[in-house]
Amino acid sequence: MYKNFFKRILDLLIATIGLILTFPFLFIIYIILYKQNRGAAFFFQERPGKNQIPFNIIKFKTMSDAKSIDGKLLPDNQRITKAGKIIRKLSIDELPQLLNVFKGDMSLIGPRPLLYKYMPLYSEEQLRRHNVRPGITGWAQVNGRNAISWTRKFELDIEYVNNLSLFLDIKILWLTFIKVIKTEGVNQTDDRPMMPFDGSN
Question: Does this model's pTM top 0.70?
């Protein structure tokens, strides 16, 4: 009952309240990034959602579009802006995803939506992470994120799918809050970048 009905109701309720309460703050961040990024305050990227249905994830744009002489984007740690570095450290860049939750593309809690290019590399078991809506935070995020291997991340994602419950979601929300307060491990950092998935660990 929770998985198929109440989880969505809870998502809508929290996303609505969250957007209302944080709107003044989000608007200030929007203005800062709009000026810094010459009119581009948001970052949109197509990701696979529940049942692998595509959607556009929304984040605050924390990196420039600086490219090398051969026209390729520079590494992330060379493109992140001064404001973007602070925003990412505090996980503020994730807040616009409340709009994704409101629309039904995402849930507050679930496996993080990864890039489409990884889809052919997943095993049948790993593909089960798409049996539920992706989340802003998840079981893997509060258990190490970039400090653990891809194999372990996917194991934690499947563990969440298998054990999805109100109690587990509350536990993940609480652990996420603690990690954000401590600014540890919830978001990507310069010293612990997320390495691309290549089908192995």
Answer: yes
Per-position DSSP letters for 121-165, written without gaps between them: G--HHHHGGGGS--EEE-TTGGGTGGGS-HHHHHHHHHHHHHH--
Q: Does 171 or 85 have the greater pLDDT score? A: 171
Cα–Cα distance, 65 to 74 (Å, whole number): 8
pLDDT average, residue stretch 75-83: 82
Say if 193 falls within a structural domain: no
Residue 72: domain span:
2-182
Closest CA to 6 of 170, 176, 171, 166: 166
Evaluate whether residue 53 is within a structural domain. yes
Q: Which of these, 160, 151, 143, 157, lies nearest to 198 by C-alpha position?
A: 151
Name the residue type at position 178.
I
**d(Cα 31, Cα 16) in Å, to the nearest integer?**
22
Q: Say whether 62 sits in a helix, a strand or coil.
A: coil
Tally of structural domains, the chain: 1
Instruction: Report the run of H or E that residue 48 belongs to, with start and end.
Output: strand 42-48
Domain-located, residue 197: no
Residue 196 domain flag: no
DSSP run (H or E) holding 87: helix 82-89
